[in-house]
Amino acid sequence: MDYRLSEDILAIRELCSDIAARHIRPIREELDRENRFPAEVMKVLADSDLFRIYIPEAYGGLGLGSLALCVAAEELSKVCAGVATTYAANALGAMPILLSGSEEQKSRFLPGLASGSNLAAFALTEPDAGSDAGGIRTRAILDGDSYVLNGTKQWITNGGEAKVYTVIALTDPDRGARGASAFIVEDGAPGFSYGKKEDKMGIRASATRELVFEDCRVPVANLIAREGMGFMVAMRTLDNSRPGVAAQAVGIAQGALDEALAYASQRRQFGQRIDSFQAIQFMLADMATQVEAARALTYSVARMIDSGAKRFEKEAAMAKVFASDTAMRVTTDAVQIFGGYGYMKEYPVEKMMRDAKITQIYEGTNQIQRGVIASALIRESASKDRK
Ligand code: COS
Q: Which atom of ligand 1 is nearest the CA belonging to 362?
């Protein structure tokens, strides 16, 4: 399908494809097996200016927006979703500053994120607050010219590796979601340490770690927007980042489809290539159709964001749900086409199937996404009725 991508985006796609082939494919199995953070790949991505894509030019970025970032995430995910997660989580971490930060915060933090010299992370989830983001307990209490943070954040992508963390904490617990605020916490802040490192099913190249705040002092200047705006900052961040998860899922699914196509043309059974059997052909046809539909939806919402749309939570949730469910189905079918070999670690499709699973869970489970879609539909329908 021709998506009429700009010259800039086509160049990014080619660059990511080349980096994935030369620097990621040869080590992806090792990264997965050893649960190893891909520092050397992050350096290549930084040297290639790929962290600059989504950051405005005024802060050292390329100002290319959401579609460009989606295309980069998709291309890297075709080869290793763990590496792609490490890369894309920077945009998630930077998003609260980009969307709601002050001029001073943007000039202070974005250039380092654009150059890739600093990585970023976003910290919302807690042991007892996952889907129920309004149920967080981490506290932030104003004391002189700083806030004092106490609490634990869980499953934070880039935890321990990032230098800049955007953290959601309660400044007014009585007000629930409306009492949350967003803060920028730097690695090394007094009272900020790292806890448990997770051993995950998939995306094992990405670092996932607990953040621990014990009387952690954060300057007042690091409060994003105003007190009480934290839940809104988090929701707007997720609306902007979910198309990136969708793009990651499209990449994983495309990678699995490519592997299945190549394998089916080589593998012979009953004296013939298995891609000559209609049973396999129909599977491949369905896989390809679903991947293309997921890509079309993902690029559409990214274009909607780039064109300046104000609310797009429904479309972002639709892309995330559809693409991640597609990735799970397509990778499962790819394993099926590989048969017994697909179940073995020597072949990449079992990793792709494990990697795909998280896209149905993180940045909001697909059940939450369906809730977001339904709420928007009902709201839109009610507002039509009033007209
Ligand atoms: N954009 C702007 N405002 C939003 C919004 C959005 N996308 N989503 C909610 N809001 C606003 C609501 O309008 C409401 O405002 P008022 O208090 O002024 O009415 C406020 O935020 C609270 O919204 P709501 O009542 O819908 O909050 P809930 O506690 O019911 O939670 C969900 C809403 C479930 C959507 C939210 O908790 C969520 O997204 N959960 C998933 C979290 C997640 O993705 N975690 C992944 C980890 S981070 S990688």
A: 46
Question: Which tens digit of pLDDT belongs to each residue from 244-289?
Answer: 999 999 999 999 999 999 999 999 999 999 999 999 999 999 999 9
Give me the CATH code for the 7-119 domain, please: 1.10.540.10
Domain 121-230, what fold?
Butyryl-CoA Dehydrogenase, subunit A; domain 2 (2.40.110)
pLDDT tens, residue by residue, 285-325? 999 999 999 999 999 999 999 999 999 999 999 999 999 99
pTM listed for this prediction = 0.97
Ligand 1 centroid to residue 342 C-alpha, Å = 40
Residue whose pair of structure tokens reads 């990793």 in the numeric block = 351
Check: CB of residue 236 under 8 Å from CB of residue 100: yes
User: Ligand 1 pocket by C-beta < 6 Å: which residues?
Assistant: 122, 124-125, 131-134, 177-178, 231-232, 235-236, 238-239, 313, 362-364, 368, 371-372
Confirm whether 126 is a catalytic residue.
no
385: pLDDT confidence band, cut at 50, 70 and 90?
Answer: confident
CATH fold of the domain at 235-386: Butyryl-CoA Dehydrogenase, subunit A; domain 3 (1.20.140)
User: Within its chain, how far is the Cα of 280 from the centroid?
Assistant: 32
Whole-angstrom Cα Rg for the chain: 21
Domain ranges, ordered by start, for the chain: 7-119, 121-230, 235-386
Number of residues that this document lists for the chain: 387
